[in-house]
């Protein structure tokens, strides 16, 4: 993971998530939201994530359930997924739909093919939804 500017977290996922790793990820996302004082963009490179699709589900049930119960849409300005296999994206789309019902905030998520497309989408979204300049710290 790498933080770009003050509101974009880029993450590259390789392999499957264990339940413990998902717990750690939730801690990082929650902490970043608190440190930034508001929502941020999460851009996820799925690459070859979640293991071979012939070996069962793309994301094991326990980590998937934990994500659905603990991710908060209000942490994110938007989530952009790119790369990965179609079946991986379908699992994540289902998770995004489930998250729409967990909070008062709608999760803005999109699924793209390449890093270049993700960057272009991010730049366009930031331009359309520009935040006002930050005021002085108290």
Automatic annotation (TrEMBL):
Name used for this protein in its record: STAS/SEC14 domain-containing protein
Native source species: Corallococcus praedator
């Amino acid at each position: 993971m790498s933080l770009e500017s003050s509101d974009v977290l880029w993450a590259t996922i390789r392999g499957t998530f264990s339940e413990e790793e998902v717990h750690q990820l939730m801690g990082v996302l929650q902490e970043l939201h608190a440190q930034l004082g508001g929502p941020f963009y999460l851009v996820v490179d799925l690459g070859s994530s979640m293991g071979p699709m012939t070996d069962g589900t793309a994301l094991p049930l326990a980590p998937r359930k934990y994500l659905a119960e603990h991710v908060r849409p209000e942490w994110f300005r938007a989530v952009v997924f790119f790369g990965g296999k179609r079946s991986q994206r379908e699992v994540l789309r289902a998770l995004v739909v489930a998250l729409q019902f967990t909070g008062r905030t709608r999760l803005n998520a999109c699924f793209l093919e390449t890093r270049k497309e993700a960057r272009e989408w991010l730049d366009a979204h930031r331009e359309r939804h520009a935040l006002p300049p930050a005021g002085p710290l108290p």
